[in-house]
Every structure is written in structure tokens, then in C-alpha cells.
Design goal:
alpha/beta, Rossmann fold, 5-stranded parallel beta sheet, 12 strands, globular
Length: about 425
Amino acid sequence: MTKVLIITIGTRGDIQPFIALGKGLQAAGYEVALQTPESYRSFVEGYGLTYAHMGNEFMALIDSKEGKAATDGTSGKLALMKLVMPMMRRMLDDEWAFAQDFKPDVLIHHPKSLGGYHIAEKLGIPVFISLALPLYTPTSAYPVPVIPPLPLGGGFNRFTYRLMGLATAPYMGVINEFRTTVLGLPKRGRFASELIKPDGQPVPVLYAYSRHVLPVPSDYPPEVNVTGYWFLNQTPDWQPSAELARFLDAGKPPVYIGFGSMSGSKAEKRAEIVLAALAKTGQRGVLASGWGGMKASNLPENVFMLDQAPHDWLFPRMAAVVHHGGAGTTAAGLRAGKPTVIVPFLADQPFWGRVVAQAGIGSTPIPQNKLTVDNLANAISAAVNDGEMRRRAEAVGEKLRAEDGIQTAIDAIRRIVPA
């Protein structure tokens, strides 16, 4: 049986799609192990996948005071980098230790995990790079998604993808030390591309987003696969609390508002803005606290504070969804056919905010540092009351529900490594 090792790291949105892919590969006859921080062990094993150990230091740092300060865009990012580097080195050791025991036939990795390309090179096995964002493949259609768009044409857009070398450059010292002392491989240049194998062949890419949300550029090469989203459906035995069920039954569909792990050190202030905006629009609301989420007390009767619930169960019961714009949450809201309001904080979130607004399935994004009661109230009113926006969102939802991104990804993997 062909063995597949999947390596990913980050927040829940970086883990969940890979669990969905792992389940699909397992059902297709592959033996699958998923390596990710220890805090997600029960999440991985709960879906019947083999869990591969990775230390949890990085996740603890994200949830620390220093990590939240960096999320808020305040000072301390350089100090944070000094803490991250040794953690990254230990993470690479964890990845290699499991790979030696598991002996995979193919490796699929999120680039944030850092070690996938190098471990596959050492083992002499096929490797796929995968994420839910078109971050690595140059195109003239739009610039690299982590920078603001400028009207400078297709040549400029393609040029911006060279900047991705800067994303991994700070870690190349750690990576090269790992390559030379642990893997016995030669050093790589600080800006060397992980899209090219040592023999010059391209590394196949799995982009886990939908062409119905962001069309595939005509200049993408054949090794790039835009598969569609990898949705992980709720566990069959999940049930809402009695309190949540009563709230949903007590009136018109509410507006979901949650910022995932992005609320940082200003959770209470953002909750105040959210409650005032709901009051101004007269809408009922479901506020998600969750990991790092909003904090509020003395809630009005028309607002329910939720720790967490599966998005595929919750979002179809909402009138609209307001969130930080993470790829996974964006996908879940669009699959439910709901208009979206994105309040981006960092990274790819502004990009998805622009994509949703340009597609006419959500309002203009509100950067978190410009979040006000009036801005949020206006966006919520548009999402709930704009009939054309709602019809477009429903149409996209129908297409996403009919799409099988996991099977498309499996087909791409099978072409290179049969089960």
C-alpha cells in the first residue's frame, strides 16, 4: 500500500483541509499519516487518521502575549523571530524523525512546515506543495496575494511572485543547517525555489480553492492543480447545545461574526464594536469566541455567544457571515451560499476580501484597523438586504456544493503515485 505523509502547521484552518484530504486518500486505498502540532492530535485521530508527532511550541507562541502583539501589528516582531528560529529547527527534527520511521512513498506539505521539500529530496520520493492560496505560481492575472494590487499590468504582476523567495529567506540558515548536518544534503541558495526539484523538474502544486470563486489564470502551467476546496464535514454525532438550538429557533436567521484566532489583544474592544453594529442594524447575532476570539459580557437577548460549532452545520442557518477572511472560513461561508463581510487582519485575508467583493458575493472588506460601528453596520446591512448579492452568493454556493475538490486532488496525486 502506498504511504502518504502529509505535513502542515498553523491554525485550525491550515490543518482541517489536510485532514479532509487524508480521509479521502485513505478511502482511495492509500496509507496516510498526518504530521502537525501536538495540540491537534485528537482532531486528527478523531477522523481516523494516523497522527505523527510534532512539538507544540509554535502554537503556544501564537497564543502567547508576544504572538498576539504581532498579530495586532504592534512592535515585537523581531523579538518574536528570535523565539521562532529554534522552534523551527526542532520542528524540522520532528519531521525527519517520523519520516524515517514511516518511510513514505510520497510527501504532501504546506510550505509553512519548511521541511517537506528537503525530506522528500533526501528520501528520493515525489513531493507536492499544497495550500489554499495561489501563492507560488507566477501569473499575469494578479500580483502575489500577500501584497496590495497595483494597476501596473501583467508583467508587474508576474514579477511580484519573485518576492516569495523573501518569505523563506529568513529561515534558510536554519534549513541549510538541517540539510547539511542531519540530511547530508548540500546547502541551497537563500532564494532557491521549492517549485523546482534538484533535477530541474517542476514540483506539482495542489491549490485547495475553487475556480468558481477565483478563476484559474490562463498562464498556469500543467503541474498546477486548482482542485476546489477540501471540505471536512462535521462528525455525524455532533449536536448543538440546547441553548444554541433555542436561540436559532427564536427568531429570524442571525448574522455570524467571528475572527478565529485573530482577535489578539483587542478582543473586548472588537466585541463592543460588533454588539453596537448589530444593535444599529437590528440584526440578531451569533458571536464566536473560540481560540483567541471575542470577549463580551451582559449580552443582549438578540445575541448568542458561541465557543465553537462546525461551520458546515452553522453557516447555512445564518443570514450572512462576518469573519477575518481565512481561506477555510471564507470557503465555508461561500459553500453555505451566504453573503460575506471580511474584516482582514494579515497575510492572505485582504486578498480573499477583495476576491469576494469583486465577485459581488460580499461587501467591500473592512481592514481590522478601520473597523468601526458605522463601517460594520453598513456592511452587515448590505449583506442582509442586497437581493442581488444574496442571489449571487446562493449561486456560488450551489457550485461549491457540487464540486469535489478532494477527488480532483486525489486524481492528481494518483497520476504520479498510484495507490
